[in-house]
Write a structure and sequence with these properties.
CATH superfamily of the largest domain in chain A: Thiamin diphosphate (ThDP)-binding fold, Pyr/PP domains
CATH superfamily of chain B: Thiamin diphosphate (ThDP)-binding fold, Pyr/PP domains
Strand order of the largest sheet of chain A: 3-2-4-5-7-6-12
Strand content of chain B: 5-15%
Largest sheet of chain B: 5 strands, parallel
CATH class of chain B: Alpha Beta
Strand content of chain A: 15-25%
Order of helices and strands of chain B: HHHEHHHEHEEEHEHEHHH
Helix content of chain A: 25-40%
CATH architecture of chain B: 3-Layer(aba) Sandwich
Mean pLDDT of chain B: 96
Number of helices of chain B: 12
CATH topology of chain B: Rossmann fold
Oligomer: heterotetramer
Order of helices and strands of chain A: EHEHEHEHEHEHEHEEEHEEHEHEHH
Bound molecules: thiamine diphosphate, magnesium ion
Shape of chain B: globular
Number of strands of chain B: 7
Number of strands of chain A: 14
Distance between the termini of chain B: 48 Å
Helix content of chain B: 40-55%
Chain lengths: ~325, ~350, ~325, ~350
């Protein structure tokens, strides 16, 4: 085990899977000699050649559409969308094609493919380099959507996604790329898609989050611990399938739940988590489930004052958690 | 600029098919598949008009473009990525009349989608027919992807994708042609230009006469063929397949043709087409035209034609009976195959 | 007042607005001589000419992208997407462009434009002519999303949408086009976007729905009335902005709520309605809020058995409502 | 096939600008705007390197393509739909050095987005500059829409849209050119071909040499110009504008140029470009080249050049000072302008 950054773990996962399986290849903008704009694929073109690390034209629909065809014909593509904000041109290929292939062919053409997309704010990325897309794609049956929060999960979930027989949207929070370091098991470390993980045990209330917000929640929990409030933190890490059992378990344990995400509140994932709790643990609630989300404005502005006003912060999480604790 | 039909060799005179390397048997097989496609289609309309099936989408008039091009490919080795009219392509690649009727009536046994998709949304891994969706244009990129995979594995398989001229307006058509050109992929882009996207005539879809002219802007050849002349289509496709197998990249083939029926059973083409125009094209229909050629070439006798008619009719009758008595899916099939784990 | 079908009301709304305002025009596939595949624009090309009723090439991104440019330059386009299922190629233009223009220009380029899209199932339309898209687009700040359930609302909401200074996604349930008839006020009838409407008063429990499901809910309510259960039915009709006040009012009145929609359950609009209730009327609940939705399969199959298995029916709504009433 | 620079009239010899209808003053104005664009850009890098601004995206090297084409338009009557490098276009259409620095530093007073967007995302209704987004390619369709609106109202305004050659790969580029062609819209599609989409070289983006060749596939002229020769660009744009105003439809202009800096302050171009290549292009830089021409034409004296330098530097200093002391937006600005009702 070595300590790695989250992006190193992602690179390792791709490297190991490409080494292991010749059908795995990478396609995307600037993934070749440039190694990707975040260097996620740094060195791979050198090691595996430009035929397996393909610099695509600047056209997201073609990146995904070509990956679909290749996956249907025996390959395991890893398609990189440079920023989650630019996945729009590929929306039709992802939702109406990739996610429907298996179902519409009654199981004949299921697609082992991964779409990686850096997402999230806090990087001065402005409106078009800060967005969250998990609710949009989480709503789509036939897709799987995962969001690693730690380097170990980044490696384990990406390897699982590459080996998965279905299309997986793999979301990498940009701010965590180099900020978050942690122990990463060597070799064949796999994390099952569809499982959440308790990152901190607690008994008074539960915080549910993923990506960068997971780390903010852990900090907020630490703060509250100092104030005598015991906070459990659940890392959702798989948006779809969602680990209902883990959500219900923490709900039944603490009776109070706060969900935190950067994505716009209206129609965000927090609503779905609240619905799951409402349906199956209503009786266990000691307070209404609460949520702290990005506001319903189109996206995060560039100016630092506005960006900070958009992002849920450790302080605001702690404040909301205190409100819940006191309910 | 695109190559035109007229410039293609029309050598062989009365025996063009032999000059193209097609045996008499091969020519007859092409003829019979065209006939079968048509007969199935006609039966579908009948069943629909009787209220026993909610929807038909037709191949009528486009059989030459479909079968002529598919015949230049090698089924099971090569791939086809069709669109919703391509009965001729699907039949050539191994779908049977029963399969056609099973999908038309949305039976559980339908090998394309087990009754999930609208008619003529083909798909079969075994037959190398990619699953067809409804959103047009998307499939061109899938064809590029299939060809990329073939190339990565060093196989010389060719992938042919089909689309209407309307679908060429989609961004995906552009992206697919560009991608295939960059990587010199073994793709045939086969446009069945029937002059309309539902009601929208070609001059509202593009400001050019020949769609094939687009190919030059990507760096590969574009060819215009008379899409109602099955041998002309075969010839163009055959050339393109050879090019593709040599690793020289894609070709865009524009087959000028016409849809004889309305767009679908939900359409009323009298709203946008003159009866005279349809009548004019009925004169140019590909099946009688090929029949006449085969008779002149003394490949098709009246007796043989009758034999073929009988065989086709029997096949269609059998398929209809079979499919009509085949069971529907059951309600709990609804939840299957959202993901791959669950086996078929 | 005359009795009209829902689609006649839509045609009237466009006709009257085009008559009133020369900057209003229509663009879409087959909207010209064909009058649209559902005949929503029947007669308009004849009356206003092909320059104001534009048959576009078969390319949804261009339909919306061109409408955006025209709206930015003083026009009021009505863009028709032939089926909601085919809105995918226009996703980027709608979400990243239309919905962000006003915000990213700090109010300088707000876009008065309407995108009409027929949606919904029950028409043997199969996977690609039956889909629901309200959750996907409802999640997008900067857009408005409305779903008329009656002919009067169809006219009033469409006229309001055309006059609205912002992009409005106008969803028309295909099954209701000719099935639903009703009185439609003549002339300048406007319905405010953002308001829900109680369609039936009741006191034991509330059904919340829109589109075709609204009518199924009304039928179910009638059934339950025969069994002595008094059911209130709220027609949401505006997905975004959502009428929180109306939702909370009916919740506080009955204490029991069932939300019904065709759209896939996970991440659907029902979850958001549940979240709104959870946040602001938790104390008023006599039972967990329930939902009855399309299952999480990619979309509705063609075969009639499977289609029926997908669609919430009057019977299944009634059954679920009984369960809620008995809670 | 596209028209090439060489074929464009190079008449006028030492006084090409006059032959093109440009007065000495007009030529000098073009020169000064190019200088100003460059000077602002250089200052931005300085501020960025000092850690006082998180991001720069540069126009350096592409000033001739930008100013030369914008100069053929009529500001406030015509429209521009730029992309994120088009400082030269924005300045020609009325943005000031102060506006540039206000947006660069994301101040509340920024007329483009009030500090909401990344640098160089222009937009001003008053100045007829459409609001710029980051997703590339989308803007070509907006240009078609603006031109459609002009046409519907019977105005002879022209809309020029700008994009990199990378963005031409997007489906939207295809759809926009096709739509503009069908309706003969008054659009100039101006491609600043700098040979790279971030790190991806042209030969990985397309299999053709000249992007302008695509135009033929839509049915309108494509022109290749030396994008570092501001007069050549002006000439091509001027011709295209005349065509457009006559109602003859769009033109695609491919200006071959080079980006002198890295893609942005986040990029390291040494990973994908040879230093020799950059050096070679530095030789061909548009500003010194135009300066030399103007000197030879005796339009620009050394004294005048110094005067211009001083003016430009003063403007940049003033703009920097002004913007640095201008206030940030306040947190509650975050929620404004999601919808139109709230006034600016
Ligand atoms: C993306 C998308 N938009 C709209 C439709 C609806 N639609 C189905 S077929 C069709 C016309 C297709 O025309 P063309 O490509 O020329 O094929 P043809 O039907 O003429 O063979 C349209 C608009 C669709 N299937 N997909
Ligand atoms: C849809 C989309 N995908 C990806 C990006 C990320 N990106 C920003 S600029 C760029 C390269 C653009 O190249 P080109 O169009 O040639 O313009 P240049 O920067 O060379 O002037 C990329 C990939 C984007 N902005 N939009
Ligand atoms: Mg057609
Ligand atoms: Mg470039």
């Amino acid at each position: 085990m070595a300590v790695k950054t989250l992006i190193e773990a992602i690179r390792d996962a791709m490297d190991e899977e490409m080494e292991r399986d010749p059908s795995v290849f990478v396609i995307g903008e600037d993934v070749g000699v440039r190694g990707g704009v975040f260097l996620a694929t740094d060195g791979l073109a050198n090691k595996y050649g430009e035929d397996r690390v393909i610099d695509s034209p600047l056209a997201e629909s073609s990146i995904v559409g070509v990956a679909i065809g290749a996956a249907a014909n025996g390959m395991r593509p890893i398609a990189e969308i440079q920023f989650a904000d630019f996945i729009g041109p590929a929306y039709n290929q992802i939702v109406q094609e990739a996610a429907r292939f298996c179902y519409r062919s009654a199981g004949d053409f299921c697609l082992p493919m991964v779409i990686r997309a850096p997402w999230g704010g806090g990087v001065h990325g402005a409106i078009y380099h800060s967005q969250s897309i998990e609710a949009t794609f989480g709503h789509v049956p036939g897709l799987k959507v995962v969001v690693p929060g730690t380097p170990a999960d980044a490696k384990g979930l990406l390897k699982a996604a590459i080996r998965d027989p279905d299309p997986v949207l793999f979301l990498e929070h940009k701010r965590t790329y180099r900020l978050i370091r942690g122990e990463v098991p060597d070799g064949d470390h796999l994390v099952a898609i569809g499982t959440a993980e308790v990152r901190r045990e607690g008994k008074d209330l539960s915080l549910i989050a993923y990506g960068l917000m997971l780390h903010y929640c852990l900090e907020a929990a630490e703060k509250l611990a100092g104030e005598g409030v015991s906070v459990e933190v659940l890392d959702l890490r798989s948006i779809k399938p969602m680990d209902d059992a883990a959500i219900l378990k923490t709900t039944r344990k603490t009776g109070k739940v706060l969900i935190v995400h950067e994505d716009n509140q209206f129609g965000g994932i927090a609503g779905e988590v609240m619905a799951i709790i409402m349906e199956s643990a209503f009786d266990a609630l000691d307070a209404p489930v609460m949520r702290l989300c990005g506001p319903d404005v189109p996206a995060m502005p560039y100016n630092h004052v506005l960006e900070a006003a958009f992002m849920p912060s450790v302080d605001r999480i702690a404040e909301k958690a205190r409100e819940l604790a006191a309910y | 600029m695109a190559t035109k039909t007229q410039e293609l060799t029309q050598k062989g005179g009365q025996h063009r098919h032999r000059a193209l390397g097609l045996s008499d048997e091969a020519a007859l097989r092409i003829y019979e598949v065209m006939r079968l496609a048509r007969a199935i289609d006609e039966r579908m309309w009948l069943i629909n008009r009787q209220g026993r099936a909610p929807f038909v989408i037709s191949c009528q008039g486009q059989e030459a473009a479909q079968v002529g091009s598919a015949a230049a490919l090698e089924p099971k080795k090569d791939w086809v990525v069709p669109y919703y009219r391509d009965a001729g392509v699907a039949l050539w690649f191994g779908m049977t009349a029963r399969d056609e009727m099973l999908q038309f009536l949305a039976r559980k046994e339908d090998p394309n989608s087990a009754g999930r998709q609208m008619p003529r949304h083909y798909g079969s891994r075994e037959r190398h027919i990619l699953t067809t969706g409804s959103p047009v244009g998307a499939q061109l990129l899938h064809a590029a992807g299939i060809a990329l995979a073939s190339k990565m594995r060093g196989e010389d398989a060719v992938t042919a994708t089909y689309f209407g001229e309307g679908s060429s307006s989609q961004g995906d058509a552009h992206e697919a042609m560009n991608f295939a050109a960059i990587h010199k992929l073994a793709v045939l882009f086969i446009c069945e230009n029937n002059g309309y996207a539902i009601s929208v005539p070609q001059n509202h879809q593009m400001a050019i006469k020949d769609l094939a002219d687009r190919a030059a802007g990507y760096g590969f050849p574009g060819v215009v063929v008379d899409g109602n002349d099955v041998l002309a289509v075969y010839e163009a496709a055959h050339e393109a397949v050879k090019r593709a197998r040599r690793g020289e990249g894609p070709t865009l083939i524009e087959a000028k043709t016409y849809r004889i029926t309305a767009h679908s059973s939900d359409d009323d083409d009298k709203r946008y087409r003159q009866a005279e125009e349809v009548a004019l094209w009925r004169e140019k229909e590909p099946i009688p035209r090929f029949a006449q050629y085969l008779r002149q070439a003394r490949v098709l006798s009246e007796e043989l034609d009758r034999e073929i008619s009988d065989r086709v009719n029997r096949e269609v009758d059998d398929a209809t009976d079979y499919a009509e008595s085949a069971p529907d899916p059951s309600p709990d099939d609804l939840l299957k195959h959202v993901y791959a784990q669950e086996s078929r």
